[in-house]
Design goal:
five-stranded mixed sheet; 16 helices; D-Maltodextrin-Binding Protein, domain 2; 2 domains; single chain; alpha/beta
Length: 452
């Protein structure tokens, strides 16, 4: 399925299909909505010096030395993230004055469609953020393979789990920008008043039964009205937050080769796990089906499942909220979702060398700076081990889970279809539909799509 074997019409049609799908799917990256539209850095192009002597007629004018090259970089739009990236771009341009970086950003809800449209129109950025959808774009030959550029030393420095979403058919099409995982944010005052002991290690993490007990205690209802929900999830009813429940119970959603759902998504283990999760909404009533905006920040949610990037939001915008971070709940084993943004290069870039230089700088030289400014977790062992920060509370909770309990989403070209199908299934279960019948139907739909 290489790019060389595809003709232009096939590639364009396939990308337009991807564009149509990605507009419906996607999980939030845990950031607040930005206040501004796309941000662009000043290209800062320099003019060429005029020649003092006229070239003889008929001879080709020699190339000027020091010619500026502009590399276009796209990323998710968020004020804090864009500000951090602008600092990294500035340091890169200072180190490489011959390269100008044009930085543009787009809201997450429309980001993947923007990328798809750009490729379909022949106007793709040189370097851009890409998540688990790497496989979708790599299948169409839209991404440049990076294996020949990534040294073994660099590959070994990254957490092994961080490479999974960058792979397609044995080749690497992205380099991890960072890592991300979730934990539980607990309203400290509510927990203290209820006499609830808060775990601090994976070994002491709440079991499923303990989570139900704790969140039931913290739920405050009168009749049909609930003033405080015991539990809430930032990425409500999405694969990012629900798949770990399946894995904790020993279930799977797809076969090992990612081609079959029947026998996995509707297996006894997966059905039991998602039936338990659905009971949080129906039988136990500790979580609302509809998300509650700023529910944890305003005291309407007592225990909130969210990524590490939620912490700077609380500290900056809600400094009066007292919270304690505890590990994710577990069943037979621990499991947390991992992943985040990777950085890819367009296969058709006119500046492959300069694009790689920028990508390598962002994910290497500037990795520690990016992690510090963004709230994301490091993906490189050298940064994790470089100081005490990530061995101290609360970062140690995220990092221990990342290293010992990592799970990933299925990196298939049909990921957006998987996302939508899984989300609909777990939503149906949360409102009381039969888990087995729901997952049987979802598995059949996925088999039909994966079989194409």
């Amino acid at each position: 399925m290489s790019f060389a074997k595809r003709n232009g019409i096939h590639w364009l049609i396939a990308l337009l299909l991807v564009m149509a799908l990605v507009a419906c799917g996607g999980a939030q990256e845990g950031e607040e909505p930005p206040d501004t539209d796309g941000t662009t850095t000043d290209p800062g192009e320099t003019e060429e010096e005029p020649t003092e002597e006229e070239e003889p007629a008929g001879e080709e004018e020699p190339q000027e030395t020091g010619e500026q090259v502009t590399v276009r970089l796209w990323m998710q739009q968020d004020n804090r993230l864009v500000n951090a990236m602008q600092e990294i771009v500035a340091s890169f341009e200072e180190a490489h004055p011959e390269i100008d970086v044009q930085l543009d950003s787009y809201p997450f809800a429309e980001y993947h469609q923007k990328v798809s449209t750009a490729f379909a129109g022949g106007d793709a950025p040189d370097v851009f953020w890409m998540d688990v959808r790497i496989a979708s774009f790599a299948e169409q030959g839209a991404l440049m393979p990076l294996d020949d550029l990534i040294t073994q030393e660099t590959r070994d420095d990254f957490l092994a789990s961080s490479w999974i979403e960058t792979q397609y058919e044995g080749q690497t099409y992205g380099v991890p920008m960072h890592q991300l995982t979730e934990a539980l944010y607990v309203n400290t005052q509510m927990a203290e008043e209820a006499g609830i002991e808060l775990p601090q290690t994976i070994e002491d993490a709440w079991t499923w039964e303990e989570l139900v007990d704790v969140t039931t205690q913290l739920t405050q209802s009168s009749g049909d009205q609930t003033s405080v929900w015991g539990f809430g999830v930032q990425r409500q009813l999405q694969d990012w937050s629900v798949l770990p429940v399946v894995y904790q119970h020993g279930g799977q959603v797809l076969s090992e080769d990612l081609t079959t759902a029947t026998g996995f998504l509707n297996s006894p283990e997966t059905v039991e796990a998602l039936a338990w999760y659905g009971d949080l909404f129906t039988e136990h009533g500790v979580i609302a089906v509809e998300p509650i905006p700023d529910g944890f920040q305003t005291g309407a949610i007592a225990v909130f499942q969210a990524p590490s990037t939620f912490r700077p939001v609380l500290d900056t915008d809600f400094p009066d909220v007292e919270y304690t971070i505890v590990p994710m709940f577990k069943d037979a084993q621990c499991s947390v979702m991992t992943g985040g943004w990777n950085v890819s290069i367009a296969a058709g870039t006119e500046h492959p060398e300069e694009s790689w230089m920028l990508l390598d700088w962002m994910t290497g030289e500037a990795h520690e700076e990016w992690v510090e400014a963004s709230g994301y977790l490091p993906a490189r062992q050298s940064v994790i081990e470089s100081g005490e920060k990530f061995q101290e509370y609360p970062w140690n909770i995220f990092m221990t889970q990342l290293q010992e309990c990592a799970a990933t989403r299925p990196a298939v070209p049909e990921y957006t279809f998987f996302f939508d199908t899984f989300k609909q299934a777990i939503t149906d279960i949360a409102i009381g539909e039969d888990p087995q019948a729901t997952l049987d139907a979802a598995a059949a739909a996925l088999d039909a799509e994966l079989g194409n």
